[in-house]
Amino acid sequence: MSAGAQARKTLGVVISGRCRDIQEHNSLGYPVFSRGRSTLGQSPFMRPSAINIPLDIHPQGAEESFPAVTVCPGDYIVADVDGVVCVPRKDIQKVVQSARKGKEADERCMEDIKAGKGVQATFKTHRG
User: Fold this and answer.
1) Predicted TM-score of the model (pTM)
2) Whether residue 1 sits in one domain with residue 59
3) Same domain membership, residue 71 and residue 11
4) Of 8, 51, 5, whose CA–CA distance to 19 is shortest?
5) Residue range 21-38: average pLDDT?
């Protein structure tokens, strides 16, 4: 599946469900992110039904606490092993500024903690 997706010039995939063979996908240099993992393969009827349209993603199960989100063509998808975030195109500058501010605060916290200052006091000082 990933090799076929790469041939079609996709950059990665986010699955609102479970997926198997994550290591195999990663070994191809093709990022795959999913809600969970499974030993079952995808059914032959699972295919994209449309592209470049808004897509509503809803939480699943009681443990999910995020609100429903609409992903629109042109939005930015940021993903790593900790999760997936959709950044609407219109908000990119605001998010970049906020991320820079958070990174700077984290760096100051790390310096203080490594210098022996308490975590709680350090967070209060640098994160507010």
Assistant:
1) 0.72
2) yes
3) yes
4) 5
5) 88
